Amino acid sequence: MILDQLWLALSPYLLFVCLIGTVLGIMWGAMPGLSTTMAMALLIGLSIGMSQNVAITFMLGVFTGSVFGGAISAVLINIPGTPDSVPTMIEGYPLARRGEGGLVLGTAIAASFLGNWIGIILMIAFIPLILKIALSFRSWEMCLLAMWGIAICGTMAAGKRPLKGWMSGWIGLLVSFVGLDAIHAAPRFTFGFDRLDDGISYIPVLIGLFGLSEVLRVMPKKFAASIPSDVGRIVPSIRAMWKYSRASVRSGLIGTIVGAIPGAGANVAAFLSYDIGRRRASPDERAKWGKGSYEAIVCAEVANNANIGGSLLPTLTLGIPGSAAAAAFLAALELKNVVVGPMIQLEPPGLIYYIYWSLIIANFLMYGAAIMLVKPCIKLFSLPQTVLMPLILLVCTLGAYAVSLSYFDVYIMLCAGLLGYVMRRFGFPLAPMVLAIILGPVADENFRRALVVFQDKSIWTILVDNPIGTLLLIVVIYTFYDGIFRHRA
Amino acid sequence: MSSEKEDAAIEEAKRKLASGFQGEEDIEGASTPQKDLVSSAIVAAIAIAAMALSWNMPDPGRTVFTHPGLLPFLTGLTLFAMAIGLAVRAVREGGANNLRSVIAKSADLDEREYVRRSWMLIGLVIALVVAIDIVSFRIRIPIGDFEFKLSSFECVAIPIVTVIFKLFWGKSWWRCLLVSTIAAMVLAAAFRWGFKIPMPGVD
User: A462 at the B interface (CB within 8 A)?
Assistant: First the structure.
């Protein structure tokens, strides 16, 4: 079955789709202001007309390409294409000014390729283990897992202000309760509108929060970039890359682990790996840190790419997205009737292997396409955002409509976009809200089911009889405790 | 960008890195104690409304454990507690002083221009979404075996996007019209024929 899926993924049409996705992702990531999450959110609408395998291949291609793409503008024009390429900008731009722009980008491409490999290998290694644990989860454990996902996402997304992250998540929970409840079909927060009985689909919300709100935020800015004329040699020598093998492995591990934590995406991974890398660097190398260090670029780029595999780990095994971009991938899978969670190994047969192979192929294509695209991408920087953003606005509208061919979803997207814009202006993160809308129904249904199961039992019996649940409860309490007291200190 | 601006961007990024864990989304710059105090009041109102609505939900079950409003009520309650927490922190940081700064015009000219352009854009986006919903017609022109379709989506999107281009891109009307026409037609064709997704309204 594993090889069957490989041959399927290697079919010329799917290879072509993967290449298109990767190229589109690199170009998208290279454009300042266009993030990976925005690309993924907008493409959900387009993926509706595709078959299951085509949609998966295309979205994974875009995911892989766009994470690297941010490095191009960070190095060449000193504007990070995606937030996770800020460390690459700090180190890469001074080197580019010295005429080493091509070599910096070549190093970033090789580091991204390595990072993806580490993420994919760890994902493949850990998926069976997590699926085994997930099979023993019952209502109580599922409810706690969903609540922990929202809580940790709030902490990770909001940095020093976890309270605002949790508030964003809790508002998302309230949104997820809209519609008929799963146990009694009683209407909740529908205010007599029949259209709200089915609840609020999280796909238009995702498009609004990460697509429309980004258009509203970026387009009114006046942006002008100085276009570099030449970047010089691109491909780094194997010997040069071998020098950074230890830093690569360490950063890959950091990136994958961070990716597996809900809400902590490529941004946290790149910053954390960069910071740890600086502390562990040799004194000679540390002296270069902040002024143009190749090792620092390797640390950041390996980590943010390893994050892709890491973020897909909880997404595929537990249905809890590891990042906002992974939430968009989850939405695309759901539109194709793929039920993520413990059963993904069996149903649909072979799909999990297809995802593995697609990621591996996307990584190879990313390496080749990135080297070919660095120079043409420079021309992209002369394209004003004011030309691009109105087109994205139309894609947002059509994408939201395409989800269920209902214009009501476009209004949901509009409301979500405006809400996202206001939330950003007031310093609230958006990812916890999306995660809560996805996980809210899981938490609600399992919470009430668990209460019915536990109604005649003492608290002590519940704690002793459900060790995994007790462990998760401690983790949830610790997450809140840590968020409140660590940041107060 | 000028050399000074480029250096300033790198220094700003370094300063942020040095200040420790920032989180996945960069919200630190957008947060002020005044904004936090206002948002905590709004969130508290939402939480109270959610609790009241949850309390009044009909209970078709026999036990409180399966009550449809149970988790919404608990969510509202904890959200209210968080809003209080945020308000207390905002007041401690001096959020109660100069509360008008949240709605007052900024002294920074660039910021004022940004706000003005933002409001303009929001108005046009709302107009686009509402107009596509309200205006509904189709034109079909048979050209041999092929049927050329033009729906209200293109007819509404082209003029509004042209206005957006004119206001934000600043090129001539003809150029804006040309780009918006090509963009709307290509997108509509891609959805209609490429992805087999009909346009909103009558397609």
Answer: no
Q: CA-CA distance, A74 to A78, in Å (whole number)?
A: 5
pLDDT in tens, B135-179: 887 788 888 777 777 888 888 999 999 999 999 888 899 999 999
Q: For the whole model, what pTM was predicted? A: 0.86
Alpha helices in A222-350 (DSSP H): 238-242, 245-260, 266-280, 283-288, 294-318, 324-335
For residue A187, CA distances in Å to A171, A200, B46 come to 18, 13, 19
Which of B9, B14, B3, B22 shows the shortest CA–CA distance to A296?
B14
Give residue-wise pLDDT tens across range A269-308. Answer: 888 898 889 888 888 888 888 888 899 999 999 999 999 9
Rounded Cα–Cα distance for residues A267 and A88 (Å): 11
Separation CA A59–CA A302 (nearest Å): 20
Dmax (CA) for chain B in angstroms is 74
* pLDDT tens track for A401-429: 988 888 999 999 999 999 999 999 899 99
Query: Hey, how many other C-beta atoms are within 10 angstroms of the C-beta on A306?
Result: 37
- State whether residue A179 is helix, strand or coil: strand
What's the rounded Cα separation, in Å, for the pair A147 and A163?
15
Helix (H, G, I), strand (E, B) or coil at A187: strand
pLDDT in tens, B30-63: 788 999 999 999 999 999 999 999 998 887 777 7
| Minimum Cα–Cα distance from A413: chain B residue | B129
Calculate how close chain B gets to A340, using CA atoms only, in Å. 24
Q: Which residues contact A132 (CB under 8 A, 6 or more apart)?
A: none
Q: Tell me the pLDDT tens digit for each residue of A43-64.
A: 887 788 888 999 999 999 999 9
Nearest-CB residue to B157 (from A221, A394, A410): A394
DSSP state of A460: H
Provide the pLDDT for residue A179. Answer: 93
Chain A residues 5-64 with CB within 8 Å of chain B: 46, 48-50
Asked if the Cβ–Cβ distance from A427 to B30 is below 8 Å, we say yes
B chain contacts of residue A184, beta-carbon cutoff 8 Å: 60-61, 66, 68
The ipTM, to two decimals, is 0.90
The C-alpha atoms of residue A247 and residue A274 are separated, in whole angstroms, by 10
Cα distances (angstroms) measured from residue B72 to each of A78, A169, A460, B40: 46, 13, 26, 19
Give the pLDDT confidence of A178-195 residue by residue, as tens digits. Answer: 999 888 888 999 988 888
Contact A395/B187, CB-based, under 8 Å? yes
